[in-house]
Write a structure and sequence with these properties.
Structural class: alpha+beta
Order of helices and strands: EHHHHHHHEEHEH
Mean pLDDT: 77
Strand content: 5-15%
Low-confidence stretches: 5-16, 299-309
Helix content: 55-70%
Strand order of the largest sheet: 1-4-3-2
Distance between the termini: 21 Å
Shape: elongated
Number of strands: 4
Length: 309
């Protein structure tokens, strides 16, 4: 008969200065974006450019996305409590998923507007469109630089940066379209460039949603393989046999969790064994929270009670 002793270990990885630094950058970017947003939308309506309007609407949603990203940083800093025992760090992953989903909705909207413009071509003021697009490009480059200098290992920050990568590409596309319209008068370039921009944004949004959804569904984190960790533990700790019931997931990108069972001799069921395995998993595999159940076939009831103290 197999008996077991469950030992819990965790290594807290508190949100540090990099998160606060990134949060400040997101706030600055949101203020700049909200300030310029109306200029581009009103200017796009004035010059009759769907590409400018689409880019302006994109900036509107970007301002909202940045606000959500800032909120994600803010909420994630709350300490754990009796109802949220792991804290609120996963909220950043949720906001990243929302940002990706919002981007996909924007892509659908741009496609619809572009198709409508193909079916009903309209005159576009190329010179004015160019001037507004140049200002928009400078704005987006500043914001993109601010965000990109933040912590790009954080999914929430990557989601915010992705929004402005799309905006920057959009501004470049609008400038190219404005030049062509001014010199050739070929207005179909406006919706064509809009579709190209939307496609690039859509690909990035899909990847962001896929990565964040994988974490929300508690899949094995990217870069981790359960079989590799199992084989490594068996090779590193010869006294561990029949490692099984391994579960590996992440609360947030930098908070990887693991539970596992392993057979061993009675003499290894102690705090020293726990510390060795815990430290090795943290250093070699970056697993921050480990719940380990050590099992043995020669453990009587009195030993179970003693070992569990």
């Amino acid at each position: 008969m197999s008996h077991g002793v469950q030992i819990l270990s965790h290594h807290h990885n508190h949100l540090g200065c990099s998160h606060k630094h990134s949060q400040r950058k997101v706030m600055i970017a949101a203020i700049i974006t909200a300030t310029y947003m109306l200029v581009e939308i009103i200017g796009g309506l004035w010059v009759n450019s769907i590409a400018l309007v689409a880019d302006g609407v994109h900036m509107l949603t970007d301002a909202m996305a940045l606000a959500v990203a800032w909120w994600g940083f803010q909420i994630s800093r709350r300490p754990a409590n009796s109802k949220m025992t792991f804290g609120f760090q996963r909220f950043q992953i949720l906001t990243a998923f929302v940002n990706g989903f919002t981007l996909l909705l924007i892509v659908v909207g741009i496609y619809a507007m572009a198709i409508e413009r193909f079916l009903h071509p309209q005159e576009v003021m190329g010179k004015e469109m160019f001037i507004i697009a140049i200002i928009g490009l400078l704005n987006n480059l500043v914001v993109f630089w601010i965000l990109h200098s933040g912590d790009q290992n954080n999914m929430n920050m990557r989601g915010a940066t992705l929004h402005f990568l799309g905006d920057t590409l959009g501004s470049v596309a609008v400038i190219v379209g404005a030049i062509m319209i001014y010199y050739t008068g070929w207005t179909p370039i406006d919706p064509i460039l809009s579709i190209m921009m939307a496609t690039i944004i859509g690909i990035g949004a899909y990847r962001l949603m896929r990565e964040s959804a994988h974490i929300l569904l508690e899949g094995v984190p990217a870069g981790y393989e359960i079989s590799v960790i199992k084989e490594d533990l068996e090779a590193r700790f010869g006294y561990l046999t029949k490692i099984h019931h391994i579960h590996l997931w992440a609360i947030a990108e930098d908070q990887v969790m693991m539970t596992l069972h392993a057979k061993t001799d009675l003499k290894y069921i102690n705090d020293t064994t726990l510390a060795e395995i815990k430290d090795y998993l943290l250093e070699a595999h970056h697993v921050h929270h480990v719940t380990l159940q050590l099992e043995t076939d020669n453990l009587d009831a009195d030993s179970v009670e003693t070992a569990g103290m």
